[in-house]
Amino acid sequence: MSGMQITPEVKGDAADINMESYVYLEEGADASAYTVELSILDHEGQIVLKEEVSLADFTFDQPRFGAITDENWLKGKGRAADLMADVRVDLSHTARQAASHVFHMDQPHLWKGVVDPYLYTAKASLLFHGQVLDEISQRFGVRSFAVYPDKGFYLNGKPYPLHGVSRHQDFKGIGNAIPKEQHKRDMELIKEIGANTVRLAHYQHDQYFYDLCDEEGMVVWAEIPYISEHIPSARANTITQMRELILQNYNHTCIVTWGLSNEITISTKNKKDMLDNHHVLNDLCHNMDATRKTVLACYAMCNPFGKVVHISDIVSYNLYLGWYVPGLFLNDIFFAIFHTRYPKRVLGYSEYGAEGMPNLHSEHPHRGDHTEEYQARYHEYMVRCFARFPWLWATHVWNMFDFAADARDQGGEPGMNHKGLVTFDRQTKKDSFYLYKAYWNAEPMVHICSKRFVDRKKNRITVKVYSNQPSLQFYCNGELVATKEADHVFTCKIDLKDGENEIRVVAGDLEDTATFVRTDTPANYKLSKKRSKSANWV
Fold this sequence. Notes:
8-stranded parallel beta sheet
């Protein structure tokens, strides 16, 4: 058996589940002697639906799983119509057959994202005169989704606002070929902040991580490495990679969008061919998978009026307004203008962020200083900004983790991008991590910011705290200073004595502590004004 394809379709309180399995038989084999038992098992492993079909009832297939050989398709002249025009499976002395059945399921247990990521198991067994020869299985969920330009993302017919992160998988000292335990650790951290969506940039990720996303209820944006610059001679490669991405991951319930490209308009060469390549990929996705949407991640300088912005089903933008460009308020202006001009276009935010290094601090943070404090301030604005535009289909922080970027030399540590909420080694959670945890995770929490900014020159400092509690009590050296009420971001001015000062913040049984030292000789640092040649987008 060579694989299976599972396509659930929710219909009111029921669902039809189209299950196809693929079998290669020796040339001349008697198909009537072979049967395929198709079954669906619940989460506990109990069979809930079963059907046995004979291979004699099915003919040799030429499905979307074959190799595209039609030159018109590769050149983009025929587009979708040519996808099925010349599909061949070249396996010597074998013939492939597809055994399929549509199961009807009443009252299915739906996959409800992080709330309840319920998974069934589809199993196909190949039998010869009743004896099992081969068997394959695949987990899947039953769910429906929709995106609306004025309402955002809906899961199973209900509003389900998507807020989450983008992820690069590389890890300090290991690289990209990371073990399963590291993938699992990444998922645990993503879950801790309360994210419900992940953009897996900018390439195909490990199957194990897609499995984790299914299990944990993460809504996923999957994409191919078609990035920054269009290369006409690479068209066939983009088609191959998109086909493989879809074929390998079709059964992953977590995936809702196929990403066509990322910031492809950074280079403006070969514009006509670039547009045509995107039409080809868009048609390819629709032809291979009618159940999902296509999406494009546009560069900040990509004109909203440009043709490429309107090819995919939905569009998201990579904007760093307030980091590379001054003016956090520009984010609000962009959303308002785009939505006013294109009220029927579904819009999201695929990248936003600011560099933040746990060893760099300032009492007066500003754009471009790479301090942990400015990164936190940036994200404070953005999370409030998104609340003003609830119709955004999804927002993805860039990035969940710091990652390697060889061409960069910024923040005093070359070869790195420090926009992550967590450091490259996954050991340090930056203050911004706790900001999102306060907003997105319902588990009670309190976190004092700038703990690593220990030495302070001022006698009076402003202590900032992130919490999802309605009120907090601030203590300094054992004495109550104030009780504060706020919406997730609390501040309190506290007078320090010379030497060590213990700050304690309490909310019922919750508390967090920090030590600040009043000194006349605080730490100093200087950042070089030299910019890396990689520009902003790496």
